[in-house]
Amino acid sequence: MIERLDHLVFTVASINKTVDFYTRVLGVRHETFGKGRSALVFGQQKFNLHELGKEFEPKARLPTPGAMDLCLITSWPTDKVLAHLAEQGVVVTEGPVKRTGATGPIESLYFRDPDGNLIEVSHYL
Fold first, then answer.
1. What does the pLDDT look like over 25-73, one tens digit per residue?
2. Which residues pair with 4 in a beta bridge?
3. Annotated catalytic sites, by residue?
4. What PANTHER family does this protein's entry cite (predicted)?
5. Based on the structure, what is the number of domains in the chain?
6. Which domain holds residue 118?
7. Is residue 68 situated within a structural domain?
8. For 30, which of 13, 51, 86, 113 is 20 to 30 Å away at the CA?
9. Which one, of 44, 121, 125, lies nearest residue 83 by Cα?
């Protein structure tokens, strides 16, 4: 029945800080839509952003910055991702480590975004 993920909604402390981090560190595209809404776009997916206290309805029951734990797939090899993260001043908290992705084995790096969300960037082996 379900084909793919279209979007997730992140509740963030600061849309500006979130946009800066995700565009600079992860190379996603920032788009605005509707009445001043923001989204981070990549591939066929996007993250819609809600700023804490200014959420759009309907929303999660307990919108909370820093409550996400997500895995993003890259085509870059791990050494290139590590070098880029270092250039951006991002501290890798774990990795590289081998994990299992949705369709097979992956190699992963873990770090946190400005709200403390755990970000895993992986590539398929």
1. 999 999 999 999 999 999 999 999 999 999 999 999 999 999 999 999 9
2. none
3. 120
4. GLYOXALASE DOMAIN-CONTAINING PROTEIN 5, GLYOXALASE FAMILY PROTEIN
5. 1
6. 7-124
7. yes
8. 86
9. 121
